[in-house]
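> call design_seq(struct)
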């Protein structure tokens, strides 16, 4: 399988064509390809900006900034979230909080955690028009103005966006401390080694020079003149594509514990790049450890192992998977900074896999569907005075009864993410996997809309979708809007539900009276008995 894909790469001279920015490696039409390849050399370009990023971080640290809150979605937030979870903050540097949710319980939890006067907010959006960060900006701008005065509030904000966007203008007109203007030829999910990933990370004291050095080393190892069979990205891309053509369309990422957050970023990269045109590859990340007997023949496993991380049980589990005859790709990291190399390896591998599979890896044609439906729901809410009813099955048992071989369950949870909710929902994933023998994924809304939402609607009809919503414990208005965060989050959930229904996807919605871990745990405990 991989051998055939490698032969295709050699025959088509694909690696060299990708480096040459030849759009015909993917499609005859250059639209959203020719202007989306800046990620190929952005790591080297950004090395020249390291002193500026370090000076920016030192300025914030010396002024007593205690928190950095990133307001962004998808490609603007998931790279920094990997860095946050993997590295934390260096001594004396502010703590990074990534806020990529409109769920009011989450928004208010962050609001209570910080002192707005000593917090620096990053408003991050490539287009400068993304709904969620703009709503969150309005919320925190009002709080900062109350704390430090309207005339001084701008210095608590900086923007990351493309040149010429409404966000650039907003930053200028509202006195932002800084606007980082990113190269326009980089799409969101390929932007982790650009300002979108590096500016928030630098503020935590991360050695961004070292991270970029590792990325540049991988660039050299994957260069256009490196033989395909010695090229790390080509080997991974060939495995991804080759196994997908044989029905192993679920790339299951297994990571060492301290780099587990890498799966959040890889999910978006793979789902938005390869899950479209009714086919492609879907990612499975963060899955509970399972006996290989519960894994079907639709899986390719990739083990990202950090040297010295000390998880013998995980190593044994991967050995058992391989012994059971399931394909495993093993990738070794020397230390955490090798994530810089992995960011680039996976970007190039995904682009290569798209070329082999004949899939356009740089657009996201189905992401807009849920956004459009959300706007329609909000419009109905404004006209009618309440959110519309969207009929959908409300039974997990009924949903799972439609499961077929090769399917997967996607849990889409509009609740505040905590360790307790993670544990409860992972218990549900385990019970479903062991009862039905299918893969499971978990995404918190609305984050997943900018990530795996593409493969949900654009990929093959192998997904069954459980939408979980709950009554928030509290709510907050969105300044300048007629709706609250609770209404916005509910509209996003209902909009996605409508989008999935319009495509004929199998979807159920369960609305809980509370989003606490006990309610979610009850759902997990009842699920095996109910089917």
């Amino acid at each position: 399988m991989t051998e055939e894909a490698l032969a295709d790469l050699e025959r088509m001279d694909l690696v060299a064509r990708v480096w040459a920015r030849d759009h015909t490696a993917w499609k005859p039409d250059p639209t959203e390809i020719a202007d989306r390849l800046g990620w190929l050399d952005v790591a080297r370009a950004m090395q020249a900006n390291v002193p500026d990023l370090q000076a920016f971080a030192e300025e914030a640290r010396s002024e007593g900034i205690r928190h950095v809150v990133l307001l962004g979605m998808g490609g603007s937030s998931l790279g920094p979230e990997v860095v946050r979870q993997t590295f934390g903050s260096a001594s004396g540097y502010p703590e990074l909080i990534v806020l990529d949710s409109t769920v009011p319980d989450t928004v208010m939890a962050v609001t209570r955690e910080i002192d707005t006067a000593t917090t620096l907010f990053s408003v991050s959006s490539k287009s400068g028009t993304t709904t969620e960060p703009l709503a969150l900006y309005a919320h925190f701008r009002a709080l900062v103005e109350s704390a430090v005065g309207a005339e001084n509030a701008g210095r608590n904000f900086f923007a990351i966006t493309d040149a010429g966007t409404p966000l650039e203008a907003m930053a200028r007109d509202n006195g932002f401390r800084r606007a980082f203007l990113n190269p326009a030829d980089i799409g969101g999910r390929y932007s982790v080694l650009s300002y979108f990933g590096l500016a928030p990370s630098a503020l935590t004291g991360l050695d961004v020079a070292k991270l970029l050095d590792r990325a540049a080393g991988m660039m050299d190892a994957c260069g256009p003149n490196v033989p395909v069979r010695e090229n790390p990205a080509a080997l991974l891309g060939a495995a991804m594509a080759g196994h997908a053509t044989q029905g192993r369309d679920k790339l299951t990422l297994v990571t060492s514990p301290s780099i587990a957050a890498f799966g959040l970023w890889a999910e978006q990269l793979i789902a938005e790049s390869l899950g479209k045109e009714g086919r492609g590859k879907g990612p499975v990340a963060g899955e509970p450890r399972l006996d290989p007997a519960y894994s079907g023949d639709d899986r390719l496993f990739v083990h990202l192992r950090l040297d010295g991380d000390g998880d013998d049980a995980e190593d044994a589990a991967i050995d058992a998977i391989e012994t059971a005859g399931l394909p495993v790709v093993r990738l070794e990291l020397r230390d955490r900074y090798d994530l810089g190399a992995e960011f680039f390896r996976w970007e190039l591998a995904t682009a290569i896999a798209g070329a082999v599979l004949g899939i356009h890896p740089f657009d996201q044609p189905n992401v807009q569907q849920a956004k459009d439906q959300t706007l329609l729901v909000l419009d109905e809410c404004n006209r009618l005075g309440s959110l519309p009813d969207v009929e959908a099955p409300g039974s997990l048992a009924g949903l799972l009864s439609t499961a077929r071989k090769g399917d997967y369950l996607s849990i889409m949870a509009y609740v505040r993410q905590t360790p307790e909710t993670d544990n409860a929902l992972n218990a549900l994933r385990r019970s479903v996997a062991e009862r039905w023998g299918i893969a499971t994924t978990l995404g918190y809304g609305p984050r997943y809309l900018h990530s795996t939402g593409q493969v949900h609607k654009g990929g093959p009809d192998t997904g069954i979708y459980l939408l979980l919503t709950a009554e928030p414990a509290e709510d907050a208005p969105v300044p300048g809007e007629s709706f609250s965060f609770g209404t916005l989050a509910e509209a996003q959930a209902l909009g996605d539900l409508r989008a999935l229904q319009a495509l004929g996807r199998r979807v159920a919605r369960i609305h809980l009276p509370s989003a606490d871990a006990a309610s979610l745990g009850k759902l997990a405990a009842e699920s095996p008995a109910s089917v």
